Amino acid sequence: MVTVIPNATLLLVQLASFIVLIIILNALLFKPVLKHLSERDAKIAGQHEDASGYADKAQAMFHDFERELADARVKANQSYHSLQQEGMSRQRERLSQAKAEAQSMMEKARAQVSAESGRARETLEKEMAKLPGEIASKLLGRPV
């Protein structure tokens, strides 16, 4: 078996190999890993900023949508009320036309009834003038 007695040379060789190993590991492992981690952190921070920007944009779009929806509801209510008023005015107009037409028909019917009653009265008066003579003829049994 070999026994190694520590001396200053062995310590310097170990120290030198340790420093060389640190330099090599730093160049090949630590710097790339740290660079990759910092790039990843930067990318995550950028995506977080993008996400918060998109969230703000979505919030603004939502408020715009709500405002437009409220405006559309107001316009719909105005249209509804204007159409309702227009319908009511048309209803009143048609009702007044129907009343006028009914009044006209009633007047025509009254005039027709009046004319027919006048003709009937004239016919009855003519026949009433003949009636006493006919009654007398029948009672006497001879023409009068």
Which structural class should the secondary elements be placed in?
mainly alpha
* Subunit arrangement of the protein: single chain
Total count of strands:
0
Largest sheet: none
Q: Helix share of residues?
A: over 70%
Percent of residues in beta strands: under 5%
Name the average pLDDT. 91
The succession of helices and strands, N to C, reads H
Q: What is the CA-CA span between the terminal residues?
A: 187 Å
| Rg result | 59 Å
Note poorly predicted spans: none
Q: Total number of helical segments?
A: 1
Tell me about this structure.
The relative contact order is 0.03. The protein is mainly α and 144 residues long. The termini are far apart. The chain contains one helix and no strands. The model has no long low-confidence stretch (mean pLDDT 91). The protein has one helix at residues 8-140.
